[in-house]
Amino acid sequence: MIKYQLICDKSHEFEGSSAQPEPQPQPQAPQQASAALPPAAARKMQELMSEMRALQTRIREECRDVGNDFAEEARKIHYGEVEPEGIYGQATAEEREALDEEGIEIMDMPWLPKDN
Asked: CA 51 → CA 4, 58, 103, distances in Å?
């Protein structure tokens, strides 16, 4: 028997089951990890995801996307070569480490897809 416990984006809980035997695992390409959470934890996760998306929206509206030039642009701001402004973009692990060694404080933030 397979049991399902689902929560929609409006926090409605649904339970269900199937008398079908569990399907045998099939070889698949690697996927992102997922977890079965208790309903309260799932609701909290949805709240946190909503807050993260709201923060991302604010960053997009108020800061400049510098793409892969993040480390270079962060240095220019830090060393006073350009006017300070909010920026966001991508940096490699090596670039982040070098910025840290130079005393340039940045925040490494996971970026959620808009539609997930």
From this structure: 27, 11, 29
Lowest mean pLDDT among 16-25, 26-35, 48-57: 16-25
Q: Residue 69 — very low, low, confident or very high, per pLDDT cuts 50/70/90?
A: very high
The 3-state DSSP class for residue 115 equals coil
Residue 14 has pLDDT above 80, yes or no: no
Q: Which of 67, 69, 60, 62 is nearest to 114 (CA)?
A: 60
Which H or E run includes 94?
helix 93-101
DSSP string over 37-64: --HHHHHHHHHHHHHHHHHHHHHHHHSE
| DSSP symbols for 12-24 | -EEEEEE-SPPPP
Is 30 exposed, middle or buried (CB count within 10 Å of its CB: 0-12, 13-18, 19+)? exposed
Whether the pTM exceeds 0.70: the reply is no
